[in-house]
Amino acid sequence: MEHRQDMVKSWADPSALGNICIGLLLLAQWGFFTGITGPATGIVLLPWLLTAIPVIFVIVFIQFRLGDFVGGTVNGLLGIVLMGQGAVKGIIALLFILYGKDMPPTYGADAGLTDALPLLCAFVVLLAAGFLSGLGQSKIQAICVWVAAVGFLLMALASLGINPVLGLVGGCCMLVIGLWLFYAGIALLLNGAAGKSLLPLGKPFGKK
Predict the structure, then answer these.
(1) CA-closest candidate to residue 33, choices 181, 166, 183
(2) Gyration radius from the chain CA atoms
(3) CA dist list (Å): 127 to 32, 134, 168, 170, 172
(4) For labeling, which of 96, 129, 140, 185 is most exposed (least CB within 10 Å)?
(5) 73 vs 11, 25, 57, CA distance in Å?
(6) What gap in Å lies between CA 159 and CA 174, rounded to an integer?
(7) pLDDT (tens digit, 9 = 90+) per residue, 21-41?
(8) Distance CA 186, CA 96 (A)
(9) Orientation angle between helical segments 46-65 and 83-98, nearest 10 degrees
(10) Closest CA relative to residue 151, chosen from 54, 29, 18, 59
């Protein structure tokens, strides 16, 4: 049992890789989030999603094994659930094109109603995750996670048909967390390799 615990502790922290992967995936969707590109973006993103999601599975597994339940939860939610359903939607759209079929006329509305409640749940989860991140890691990270939470809320409201502009604003919020994750991943990588702080990540709440 002791040998097993030592083996788990010897695993490297995959947080840098997780942040970089999810940050890249979010930034790759900048055109879709800002409304510049259309539904076909899901098909174009498939190579990125299908290659990154298995990596994120491994990252989340290791994070939970190391006891990083906050990082594992956020990466699992953003990297596997959110990106995974995007990949499945891209595959569905591709299959319709390959077989020369049109999407059902109610597909968009049905998908919006289906997505709304999970997006609201993601909003709640990220509110809590941001609070925990601020206490234990960085208040800057907490703020960025909360921005992402607001993004999920706005996209949920847009999915309910309230106002499509809310979805665009929510997408821009997702780009904020994408930029932060990419920066944080690079910072963790450089700081860890150098053994000192080369790129600042901020301090927890209550610390100056």
Answers:
(1) 166
(2) 18
(3) 24, 11, 20, 15, 18
(4) 96
(5) 19, 17, 11
(6) 16
(7) 999 999 998 888 887 887 778
(8) 39
(9) 150
(10) 29
Q: Please, where are the H alpha helices in 39-163?
A: 41-44, 46-65, 69-75, 83-98, 107-136, 139-159
Tell me, what DSSP letter sits at residue 37?
A: S
Q: Amino acid identity, residue 187?
A: A
3-state secondary structure of 110: helix
Beta carbons of 147 and 155 less than 8 angstroms apart = no
Please give the Cα distance from 94 to 142 (Å, whole number).
Answer: 37
Query: Which among 45, 118, 59, 57 has a CA at the least distance from the CA of 88?
Result: 45
The closest of 72, 42, 67 to 57, measured between CA atoms, is 72
Contact yes or no for 52/21 (Cβ under 8 A): yes
Reading the chain (208 residues) residue by residue, the pLDDT tens digits are 444 555 555 788 999 999 999 999 999 988 888 878 877 788 899 999 999 999 999 999 999 999 888 888 888 888 888 889 889 988 988 998 899 888 888 888 888 899 999 999 999 999 998 998 888 888 998 999 999 999 999 999 998 989 889 989 999 999 999 999 999 999 999 998 888 889 998 888 877 6
Which residues, other chains included, contact 103 with Cβ-Cβ below 8 Å and sequence gap of 6+?
93, 96
User: Domain boundaries in the chain?
Assistant: 12-193
